[in-house]
Amino acid sequence: MVMIEHLRGTIIHQDLKSVVLDVNGVGYKIHTNTAVLEPKRGENNKSPATTEFWTYLAVRETALDLYGFNTKDELDFFQLLISVSGIGPKSAMGILTIATLPNLRHAISTGDTSHLTKVSGIGKKNAEKIVIELKDKLEGLVSDVGVSTSSDVDALEALKSLGYGEREAREALKKVMDISDTGEKVKKALKLLS
Asked: What gap in Å lies between CA 179 and CA 189, rounded to an integer?
């Protein structure tokens, strides 16, 4: 089966829920959260700049739909969400649109369904199903990579957003595991990294 996991090109059309990405003369319609896309311009400030998407190809009987994400982490989380029975690509995209990844991870790990029920079509029952089915997967994912609590996950995301690589951020966080406050953990890790 052919999978399209990553595309790079220029956006030639955009609406509220999708873009058309021109990749060497072929226009791919990608369903994405266009609210997070920043308008980018090329070197001369007039031509469109190159944009990248991590993508998931949803194969149905009557359609092939591409869903696009800014980061590989978002794509991985999307794939976790659609592994839950009854959650399709559109619902998963809706969930990713309403909150950041660290907030969603924290909500699932603590059993907080309030973020999930904000999505159209996801009631309390489906939100609870998502929490039940993903809580263990997220904990397993987190422990596999050397980060054990939701504050560790938040601290890791904060360090990555500041430009540190995942490996160096994890190494620094391992040295400050005894600190429970996320802000304090990030400060101590930053001192170790500088």
From this structure: 10
For the CA atoms of 52, 54, 59, 64, the dihedral, rounded to the nearest 10 degrees, stands at -10
**Alpha helices by DSSP H, 111-165:** 124-144, 150-161
CATH 3.30.300.10 at 72-135, yes or no: no
Nearest to 58 by CA among 46, 66, 49: 66
Q: Domain 150-193 class?
A: mainly alpha
* Predicted local confidence at residue 177, as pLDDT: 73
The alpha carbon dihedral of 174, 177, 182, 185 has a sign of negative
pLDDT computed for residue 145 by the predictor: 42
Domain limits, the chain = 6-69, 72-135, 150-193
pLDDT in tens, 20-36: 999 999 999 999 987 66
Containing 66, the helix (H) or strand (E) segment is strand 64-69
The tokens for 76 are 């991985």
Q: Which two tokens stand for residue 190?
A: 């930053």
72-135 and 150-193 agree in CATH topology: no
Report whether 134 contacts 84 (CB < 8 A). Answer: yes
